[in-house]
Structures are given as C-alpha cells and as structure tokens.
Amino acid sequence: MRSKPLLILPFLAFFLALTTAIASAQTMSISDTVLKMPLADDVSMDDAVDSMKLRANSLNFKLVAHLPLYKELEAMGVDSGRIEIYQFCDARIANEMLQFNPDFAAYLPCRIALIEDTEGKAWLVTLDLGKIIPGANLPPELLEKAELVRDNIESIMTAGANGEL
Length: 165
What we know:
It is a single chain. The protein is an alpha+beta fold and 165 residues long. The chain is built from six helices and five strands.
C-alpha cells in the first residue's frame, strides 16, 4: 500500500504544471507578445522610415513589402493617424525555416509597424521574436539564424526609433 502515494506523484506534478501553464496563458496580454519602441522626440516618422531602410540594407535584409494602411483608411473617410507596415526578409533564412517547419510561414516576412497613437506619438511595433524562438525547438544551426533575424529586426527598429543613418 505504500507504493500508491508514489504513483500519484507523477499525476500531481502533471496537474501542477498544467495549472501553471493555463494560469500564465490567461494572464498574458497582447502587449506581452510585442516589442514596441517610441521614436525619439527629434525623429520624424519619415526619418525613421529612411533609417530603417538604410539599416535593413546594411544587414542584407530586403524590404519586401510596404502597406500604407492609413491611406486606405483615409480613402474610406477614417481618420486613423499614420499606420504603415514594413515587411523585411532574408529569403535564404526564411526558406530554411520553412523547410524545417512550414508553420513558420505564419511569421514571414518580419513586420515592423509604424503607428501614430491617439496622442500623436509615433511608435515602432513588431512581434517579439525573443519570446517565440525558445518554443520553436530549432536545431542549433537554425537557432543561430533565428537569433540573427531577431537581432537584425531589433537593430532595424532601433535605427528607426533613433533616426540613425
């Protein structure tokens, strides 16, 4: 009879882990999944865009798409403030990630949004890859490349936020 309590221990450990995971998922907000940088006070939104493009080029990241969403909204009579989405990609790394797991298509290409909040403050916002990468179970060579992408996107954002040319 003494072995029965020992049989229950794995189930208790599993239940505790499951409960903790559910509780943390319920307390996570959308803000917990993004990296957000304000533009420095002396950096215009146009300067931020120029800086991001220059930094991306220096890192061999290609600007593959640009969506000026605010212009579409203006055409519909909606005053949204400036909202633009810039999409950057290293095609070789993207291909390797897709070959490893097609689910990575949902994260491609890397997006940086330039938004103007309701108070007129400009921000750069992107998915926080630092929170995604650990759960991707990547082999070492792909992990290194994923971390490079993360670092490059953060570098592009930092250049934009600070107006670095």
